[in-house]
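Section 3.1: Structural characterization of target chains.
Under the original work plan, the team committed to producing a structural model for every single-chain target entering the pipeline before any wet-lab resources were allocated. The record below documents one such target. The sequence was received from the expression subgroup and is listed exactly as submitted; it comprises 416 residues.
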Amino acid sequence: MFDILRRYLAVLGIRITALAGQEYVGMPVKEWFAMANTGTMTDAGIFVDPELAKKASAVFACMRILGGTGGSLPCQIFKRLLDGGRELDTSLSLYRKLHEQPNPLYSAFTYWQAAIQHIHFYGNSYTWLLRNQSGAVENLLLLDPRGVITKKIGMRWGYEITLADDTKKIIDQDDILDFPNTFFDMKTGRGTSTISAGAQAIGLSLATEAHSARFFANAAEPSMIVKYPHKVGTDLKEDIRKYIVEKAGGKMARSPLILSEGAEVSVLTMNAVDAQLLQSRVFQVEDIARLFGLPPWMIGSTEKTTSWGAGVEQMGIAFVVYALRSQLTMMEQELDRKLFPARTHFAEFNVSGLLRGDIKSRYAAYRIALGGNQLPGFMDIDEIRKLENLEPRGQNKIYEPSQGETTGSEQNGQTG
């Protein structure tokens, strides 16, 4: 029943925006959409679902940044060593699938980008692990979250998926990668869609954009007034109007007007209501950026960004730490428990490229890593060259000061 209701409301959703405050068969229209989990009818009178939310420029920008950044991060596989260390293991077939191509249909970038976008648009991202007869994963197939129903069976989850031919299939949790958004519901197995959580803000943004477009396209308020000391005929009015449009519009903008018959020109400025409309559009951009955990400057809202240089650099690092890290950690743990149950290996997204500071700061850190001030080093030259995407030169010896050498602290008169 709910599948039919979802499809029905999805078709009508765009058309019955005007019914936001009305009832249908004794129940408010907004509750029908909420029950069918197909979108939200907002108080602004705008129906908001993932497809319509993409038309909000701020939402599109947020998802471009989050999906694009997450998709560009290399997903690597490491082998656990007996001494507690780790080493990169590129020999596994899964390494190429997570790092380059999860299946023949698309690249790893496209897969991870879409997976992250599904999390925010639908609350969950689902991937079907297609295994061969020996149980090894051959392909990772990203599913449409709208065609997945989660069912709790004892202490396990079952996933009912709808295939391309409309047939249904129940998949055990071991064969599904499930990446939920925040506010995970233990009863339904669903995370909270960012789009549904921020539907009111997104709806208001869409309504404001539509109102602004109508205002500038069909505004009845003129930009200037021409006054005459005496009554003028209709023909003269039309001649003056055509003259002003011709001489002060398009390429002729800001060219001087020459009027006769004692005419005076008064330029109209934007009133407080119109200025407030523009301010509300700026606020909506900031509000939507807040929903997705992004600083507003990342999606082009720079009005309140006064600290450039190192300030923006630190905000970029904060974006990785506070917006991306929790999401990546959730995905890494799901990969580990579904792909590496024996715990011999683990997956990790490499974010070092995003956390790199400016060149001066990096080189200062490299100097310390090499053993600057005659302190014990913990990296060799080739390891540093690798971080800078340079070829190795066979200089893989880590510096250790001899007993006769003095350390930087000893040179400053500080002893243990």
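The radius of gyration is 30 Å.
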